[in-house]
Design a protein that fits this description.
2 helices; 11% helix; alpha+beta; 193 residues; 8 strands; 4-stranded antiparallel beta sheet; two-stranded parallel sheet; single chain; globular; 24% strand
Length: 193
């Protein structure tokens, strides 16, 4: 089942410097409202767009904001996240059947078209995403219907499920949006800056 996206994930990006940082205390008036979680981090993420997130902070925050087709389990394997089931009808085709009911934080349904768009935008040379190289074995992504996504690889590829860990953004989300602006996600949290 999908986590409640209505939770608000509030990231407080603070720039602390020198000796003044060690003596800072909490002010009770700055406590977040009951429906928010405020997390202070030492450094700003490089980006909040999962298509460009390569640093640890960006990736960790992205795991909370965005769902992916699969995610790593506690034993190092992969389990469905957005994918309710996975088929491998041939040595080069993987089919991901999305669980119905996933929505982005604005209420828009998440469909196979969003998955295709996300991957196509990373695979495009124009996007200049550093993640493009990690998708080199992926020939194409197809949206067969609203809930079925196909990955075609260059050949048999044992690590194909690793390709399915990219956070999904809505179709049409511009590449390299304004710094600090988070594309909509379908994960359990959203960012309020």
């Amino acid at each position: 089942t999908q986590w409640g996206w209505s939770f608000l994930f509030f990231v407080l990006l603070s720039a602390l410097s020198g000796a003044g940082a060690s003596g800072c205390g909490r002010d009770r008036e700055s406590e977040p409202p009951a429906n928010q979680l405020r997390v202070e981090i030492e450094t700003s993420p490089a980006t909040l767009d999962p298509r460009y997130a390569t640093d640890v902070i960006s990736s960790r925050i992205g795991e909370l904001i965005y769902d992916s087709l699969v995610k790593a389990d506690s034993r190092g394997g992969f389990v469905g996240d957005l994918a309710q089931s996975i088929e491998r009808p041939s040595s080069t085709l993987w089919l991901f059947h999305l669980a119905p009911g996933y929505r982005f934080s604005d209420g828009t349904p998440l469909t196979a078209r969003d998955v295709k768009y996300t991957y196509d935008s990373v695979m495009s040379a124009a996007s200049a995403s550093l993640k493009r190289g990690s998708l080199a074995n992926l020939v194409r992504v197809d949206a067969f219907d609203d809930l079925t996504v196909g990955f075609t690889t260059r050949g048999p590829f044992a690590a194909a499920l690793e390709l399915a860990t990219l956070g999904i953004v809505p179709a049409g989300t511009p590449a390299r949006g304004p710094r600090g602006i988070s594309p909509l996600g379908s994960g359990p949290f959203r960012v309020a800056l």
